[in-house]
Amino acid sequence: MSTVGKYRVRKKNLIGMRCIYHESCSMIKSKRLKALMGEHIPVYCDGDFQQCARVKLKVAGKIVPIMLLPDGKMIIISKKKTSVVNYSTD
């Protein structure tokens, strides 16, 4: 058994399982942000969600930045362009 947040699940069942925070994730709720996530959804949200930077922060009881991508990079939107930069979750 493994614990993810308040959930106890069998470790072998975690891969390929939808993220337990999928319904409450601000990236998924926002159509604009969801569009920016692209390839992250099958990899993290519908795949190995334990590796998601957003899940790691939530489980640790930390604030999850709205623009944080599952791979730990941050989306920066300005009037001129949209950028993706590395973000430290430590």
TrEMBL record:
Protein's name in the database: Uncharacterized protein
